Structures are given as C-alpha cells and as structure tokens.
Amino acid sequence: MHRYQVFPASIISSALYLSLIAAGTVSAQIIPDTTLPNNSNVKAAGNAIQIEGGTQAGNNLFHSFREFSVPTNSEAVFNNSSTIQNIFSRVTGSKISNIDGLIRANGTANLFLLNPNGMIFGPNAKLDIGGSFIGTTANSLLFADGTFFSAINPQAPPLLIVNVPIGLQVGADSGDIVVQGAGRSLNLSLETGLERENPSNSLSVKAGQTLALVGGNIYLEGGNLLAPAGTINLLALSSGEVTINFNASEITFRPETSAQFKDIRLTQSASVDTSGDPAGLLQVQARRLTLENGSVIFSINEGSKLGKNLTFNISDSVELIGRTPDRKFLSSIISWTKGSSGGGELSINTNQLMLRDGSGILSGTDATGNAGNINLQARQVSLGGLSADGGSLTAIQSNPWPSSTGNGANITIAAEQLTVENGAVISVSTFGAGQGGNINIQADQVEIYGRSINGQIRSGLYARTTLNNATALTGDAGTVSVAAGSLSLRDGATINVASLGTGEAGNIELNANTVELNNESLITATRRAGQQGNIRIRAQNLKLRQESLITTNASSKIVSDYGQEIPTNAEEANGGNIAIKTDNLVALENSDISANAETGFGGGVTINASGIFGTEFRTTQTPKSDITATSQLGAQFTGIVQINTPDVDPAFGLVQFQENLADPSTQITTGCVSANSEFTLIGRGGLPSDPTQTLIGQAVWRDLRPVENLGRGGVEERANITDVLVSNPASPLVEATGWTFNAKGQVELVAKAANVTFYDSWNPLTSCHN
Fold this sequence. Notes:
The structure is a single chain. The chain is mainly β. It folds into four domains: 30-111 and 122-162, no CATH class; 176-388, no CATH class; 462-656, no CATH class; 738-770, no CATH class. 3% of the residues lie in helices and 44% in strands. It contains two helices and 59 strands. The protein has a 30-stranded mixed β-sheet that branches. A 15-stranded parallel β-sheet has the order 20-23-28-30-32-34-36-38-40-42-44-47-52-55-54, with no helix packed on it. The radius of gyration is 38 Å and the shape is elongated. Residues 1-28, 707-730 and 753-770 have low confidence and may be disordered.
C-alpha cells in the first residue's frame, strides 16, 4: 500500500504516470527527425529496428528522433562503428519514450538517451550495450565550448563537438522516469549471510560500467537496476545544471548548488544493486527518498579490493518503511562484504531520516573483509518499532556474521535530535571472531523510550557479542559513545554493552548536560566471564527514577539480547567499573548504581558530585536506592565505592527541612539600613539577624569564684564589675562595598562614606560586587 500522505505530490505524479503509459502504448515506434547535418536512418527488419546514419564528430555519434519507443518483444539496434565511444540520442517531439523491449549498441560505446517528456522502462526493458547507459529527461547536453545538444531547441550547432559533454541542463518541466518490474528476492540468514538472487528482469549494464537515471521524479515500481562492480547514479531534479565527470567507465554527476530537486520512490520490492568484484559506486541525490514494501538499495563486495561507497545526498527526507508482502525481507539500505577486503562506506546526508515498521540500515560481513562504516548526518533521526506483524526489528546495525573473521562497522550519527522508540534499536553486534564496531552519537537531544508491542525488545543502543555458539564468540564488543545536550531514557529503554563469549565487553561513555533514566530504564555493561565493561558518565545533572539502573554487575543473567535477560555461566566474572562526574546526582524509587558480582570480585564505583540526593552507599542492596559493589562470595571480595562530595555527605541521604514554617511576615527585623544592604537566607524558615546589633555569644569573662580567706588581716575587696566594663558607644555598622590599598600597600575594606578620601585614579576604588 502506497503512503501518499508522505509525499502528497506523488498522487499527481501517479496520474501523470498513467497518462504517460497511455501515450506510450499508442505509438511505440522510432521516428527520426531532420535536425542534423546527417540525419538518422531507421529500418525495420522483423522485430528489430536498425538505427544507422547520424552525424559523427570524432568518436562521438549524434542521433536525433521525433519519437523513440521500443515495443514489447522488439529491439532497437544502434548499428554504430566499433570505433564510436559515445552515442548521443535526443527526442525532439512531445511524446514520452515507452521502452519495453531491448536496446542494443555495437562495441563498447556509451549510450545517452535524452527525452525531456519522460521515460517508462517496462518490465521487459533490457539493455545490451558494451558501455554505460545514461537515461535522462534533461533538456540538453552541455559542451566545453558553450554549445548545446538540445532536445527542446534542436538546431544543429555549426560543428558538433568531438569531446565528451561536461554537463546537463535540466528544465523546470522535465519529465519523470519510471522503471517497472517484478521486484527481487534477497535472503539474510546466520548460515549464509546476505544472499541475492538474479532478478527475472532488470535494467542493467555490463560489469564495471555506469547506469544513470537523471531527470524529474524517479519511480522504481518493482523495477531492478543492476550495475555489477560498476556505478549507479540516481539524480532527481526539477531544474538546474549538472556537471558530468568521466573517469574511465565511472561516470558521476554533480548538481549545481542552486539546483532544485525532486523525489525518488522505490516500491514493490524494487532494487538497486552495484554488487561485484569489487562492489561499485552508488550515488543517490534527490529531495525525498522513500523505500517501501521490502525495496532495497545495496552493494555486496565480493572481491579482494575495497568496495566503493554508497552515498545519499537527500535535501528533505529519507524514509524506509516495512517489509515485502511475504515478510521475507525488509525495506533497507545495505553495505555488505563477502570478500577479503572491506565493504564500502554507507553515508546519508539529509534533513530527516525516518525508519518505520521493520525497515533497516545495515552493514555486515560474512568473510574476512571488514564491514563498511555507516555515517548518518541529519537534523532529525527517528527509528520506530517493529514491523506491523511484530516479526522484524526497525534497526540501524552492523554485524560480523558467525562465519566471518572481519570486523564490524562503526555507526556514527550526527543530528540535532535522535529518537529511538517502541522497540527500535541501534546495534553493533558480532556473532563470531570479528570485533564489534562502535556507536558514536553527537546530538543536541537524544530520546530513547519504550519497548516493542510484545514487550520483549527494549528500545536502545547495543554493542554486543551475540549468543550463537559460545565457543566461537571470540570477538570483542564495541563501545557506545554519546555526546549530547540531553539524554533521556524512559519506559524500559536501554544502553547496553555485553559479551557472551570470551571477548571483552565494551564500554559506555556518556557526556551530556542532563542524563535522565526513568521507569525501569537501564545503562548496563556485562560480560559472561572475566572483567566486565566500564561505564563513564559526565553530566551536570544525573537523575534515576522508578527502578532504573546503572550497572556493571557480573550476573548469571545478562541483559543483552535487545534488553532480554539471557542465562549465562558467570564463573569468575568480576563486576566492572562505573565512573560518574556530575553536579547533582538524584536516584529515587529503588534506582540503583551497582558493580556487583556473584562468583567474582565486586567492581568499582567512583562518584564525584556536588550533591547526592535520595541514594547512599550500602553494603547490600535494599528496596531503597543504593550504591553498591558487593560480591556474594563475602566481604573480602567486595569492590570499592568512592564518593567525593565536597558539600554533602551521602550517608545522610536527603536533607530534612523543618515542616512547620514560620510566618514570613514576621521574619524581617526592623532597623536595617536600606542603602547598600544585602540579605542571604539558606534553607526553609529562620530569622535573619539585625545587622545593627552586637553579635550574640561574646560576653566578657567575669571571675565569680568564692572569695579566698586571707586571714585576720581582712578581706581584699574586688573591684566593682562596673569599673571593669568600659561602656563605649557602639559604632554604626556599615557594609563594605569596596577595597583599596593603604600607604603600606595593604588591602583595606572601605565604604563609600562622604568623609573618606581615596587615592588617585591610578589606584581606584574596586567594588566588592563586580
């Protein structure tokens, strides 16, 4: 089912598409025009249409047609000389090109077909050319001397150029390009990795060549594009100039910065494939890119050379939705390697990246080569939930397969906002001997929340060695690193690194202004045996609520398989380390920070905080919020908890304020001077002192001992106490508002009194408040 609400313009485009089909089926033929010095000649021979003549300039051959369509079971044969390198063909009439047969050319010539009205490649359309194929709805080809080979202004230039063109001119009314077909089947299993079947029909070029579609909207409705070890370019434009770069058989296109883009849409299990030895280059440029119904853009490196990259520059949005109707494969973008060298890097640059209903972005290896890295840059990245039937994850992931020794890919995401919800995951997992990749996220806001509909899968970030055959799990898990303005986990969300084999568990590194865990959310680093992973958190505010956990526990149950608990053998497993640096740590409602062990040593917990509220160190876990590093083997196996709080002793937990507050209307004593006065109150309630009164508690000492008996000579009289206490009038208290240097160079606190004389301007009064 098409989701036209995502791209409202597609309804109009579909109507246009139906009209194009009708127009094309009426006149499926090839008719030359008379606009060239030497015009094209067309001869029919059975089902074959021979195209000869044309105007030759050096190794270039120019053809011009009023109509160009190829019916089903027919052939259009360019009968060119074997010395020709490029065939440039244009359609100057008003009809689209409806191609449902075979297009053939001699030798290794590249074939350019221009028709600004639009093109439809039916399910039986095929190419049999030795060079590259460029199908475009551009108006004209541009040459270095400023001349054009134009389909809308078909006047022949005085001298057709012998060099290759340098660009395309796309008009505002450029037509759409449609490729139809029966779709394609792919299979992904632990036993075989990623397997592809040859499609029953495809628009394809020979190995190492370029297949390019450049024009208005591009629709692949079950259509399959194939360039084995070659190059595929998809460029959807509404207007602008495009630079063409020739690098042997690799032809690429770069639109000018002011170019306006249109949409690319793949439906009905459509596919785009540059797999081969090595995997070829794949470039997609558009306003919006949509993959539905199990459609896939992929590249498998099958050789000893490094695979080339998959690059997507999409100005508005990339959306991947759902699976094939038979639920065998998901809508996806994939870089894979089956060779001894690495797969190509997969890069997406867009405004919005959205994955829904079991779709995915994947990089993997089932050989000795490394998986290609995934680089995503967008303003918003959003992953949501399972497929509608609950059978497939929505995921961005990298996987070295069980049979591989190659390493996993790194996943790097740069975004303003990242949202992972309802059971979706970002995962770098390894099933075999290869090392797991890393997750690196830089975002203003990261939100991870919820579980899958069936409650079994926690939304989250995962770096794991995954349970398959434990003896083969020798690879190390990767690291999860998040740098964000705010990081929020809620409703069971998880950040997890884990090792179920003999490899090392990874680390978690979080750096944010605010980190919040709510409602049974987890940050965990676990390992089946040996030393656990480490967790490092640096945040201004760290909050845990409602049974949320930060843990490096060594347990017989590891939270690993997308948040599910997996029973393991935890022999000799030690707790990991947790390091937290924060201004404020708040842990409420049985939310724990722990590095415990069952059969090994407890780990280490180090907390540097200005304030800790709601939690404290305990020697055992309780129903309250705890900080622990215990071992079930006994006290001698207990880990180390170090809490550095300059202002608050965490042993006292929350500060208890008085409940009965005084009447605030009676709290200010009279007699305060109004000028330059200040008043500070900390806590709840209390009565501030009168700044004009003498400080309390400084009474003069008085000798009240009994009178000593000095004998008959008499008694020595004590002086009258009133003679000892000298009564001097109290000087009025004036607040210091500045300082200056006296004649000895010493600092003196001063007030701005009228009778005070200050030093010259080179030694000005300095305010206490500045």
